[in-house]
């Protein structure tokens, strides 16, 4: 395979030149001794043979070989150890998984799943940068040259967008540390794909789950590559400082190392809140008060700071109720302010809030993750139902009994509170923020229901989600919202039905997750080391020395003691769901709901049997009456024939033959 030039042609007839990425990037990686292909590694010939062979026996052998490669990649990715261990070599494993993802069928699906899981929990290391650029170019190549040219949506496209989001999120963190200065050539190679993605708005507009990831990639590219919005990539923290004279002088200048990018006070306080939660610092309440004071910075047009702030504060909210309340109050003020400003025509002319839906959509995903992975049941319940207890539980579960024309006030920014608010605002000509937020809530509810499948300890939470989804299916008529349910189910592609299998315990496979479990914690840890450096923490090195050394086997390099201490995981940081019992034993109401669901299902089956017997009896009676009616009709015909023709023979029947004797 040679690195020949081709073009990207979108549906509008515009073309962009590019080079096929695999050979070029692999050559760079080989030169830097990052990836050395072995005799059993996946090659281009193997991929072509796998996709084009028609011989069943040969196809089965290739499938078994691909599965062995998948198993080996899982081990080298360290899926069960969060990317740590002597046997782990992430850059080489990522590249091999990207190659395996070109094999059609179940191998492609599983390869993308384990790549997504690895990018979610892997640590930040400068040695990963060449491989990250390789993944970025491969994913953008697939999206621009394959997915974007098709007129329909498929599940692999959703996974590619999610992987692209994680890759560019990691690149942005490295950019804040100033590590992308020596990768200008790689950034130049990505620019044609960014140009192609800029024309994908009409293709992904109906699918916010993909469109939000594409928008994040584009916004990151604008800042990192210093393209169209280079002047907005530096945000000066200009705020009213009255009443905050005791704030440390470090907040006066929040410029990151060598990146030329300044984080705002909101992100700084979110990282400070997370650090206080981790260290049980009593100054947490003061930090949260200052955080709410800077809530106006959430409305800045350069919204990457806001996205990072929500991710970090969401991680703190998984451990602390005060942080969860601050997060929900922050978003309640943001949504109310944005919607009130959009109603004012004069403000809409001056301010463009077309980006605000990205923040709200990201918030719905963070809320869903809190409902699933928070440390206590009280935190999970609050994220689902909210703090207000004035409503009855049944009304909060069924918020869409009637579509009221009255103006609904946003009281709670929990999942059910937002569902009630946005469902009352939905219409054919509603704002993009309304229907995308409603779309994101329903889409994440389906994924949450699938994530909780087979977990007996979470039956109460799953029962509420199931009831809400059933109510949405019954009462919602908007096709955009119903498509969210269909797309989520198609993305999961699960052979079991999560709505009916109450007694089936399904094990959760590693690498088969639908939500990001660890990337927020990784980002919060890295940003805390950047913004609050101390003696005990080790920052990412500013520059990697380019030293030519003999390539050894994957993962055999010894880690220094400082790095081992950084990568050490405590129980507080949730190393795995199997080691940490995050969910309590189900209470009385949860067990009662489960028993009630079983009884209802039993009586419903009995009712179906009775209805079937009644239907059979009615059908038999209708058949008997039809036969009797046909018989009476024939008798009437014969009677009229006899009266008219004086014959008793049937129609078309000859009279009896009489022989005459001569």
Lay out the secondary structure.
Layout: E1 5-9, E2 15-19, H1 21-31, H2 44-52, H3 56-77, H4 90-100, H5 106-121, H6 129-147, H7 155-177, H8 184-197, H9 201-204, H10 208-224, H11 265-279, H12 284-293, H13 304-317, H14 321-343, H15 345-350, H16 356-373, H17 377-385, H18 393-397, H19 415-425, H20 432-451, H21 459-475, H22 479-492, H23 519-531, H24 561-566, H25 588-645
Antiparallel strand pairs: 1-2
Overall tally of structural domains: 2
Write out the strand line-up for the largest beta sheet, numbering strands in chain order.
1-2
Radius of gyration: 31 Å
Provide the helix percentage. Answer: 55-70%
Please state the structural category.
mainly alpha
- End-to-end Cα distance, whole Å, is 106 Å
Q: H/E series, N to C? A: EEHHHHHHHHHHHHHHHHHHHHHHHHH
Mean pLDDT: 77
Give the low-pLDDT segments: 1-20, 32-40, 227-253, 392-399, 495-508, 541-583
Backbone shape: globular
Largest sheet entry: 2 strands, antiparallel
The quaternary state of the protein chains shown equals single chain
Number of strands: 2
Q: How many DSSP helices?
A: 25
Please give a structural write-up.
This protein is mainly α and 662 residues long. The chain folds into 2 domains: 5-225, no CATH class; 263-518 and 582-586. Helix content is 58%, strand content 2%. The chain has a two-stranded antiparallel sheet with strand order 1-2. It is globular, with a radius of gyration of 31 Å. The N and C termini lie far apart (106 Å).
List keywords for this structure.
662 residues; disordered N terminus; mainly alpha; 25 helices; two-stranded antiparallel sheet; single chain; 2 domains
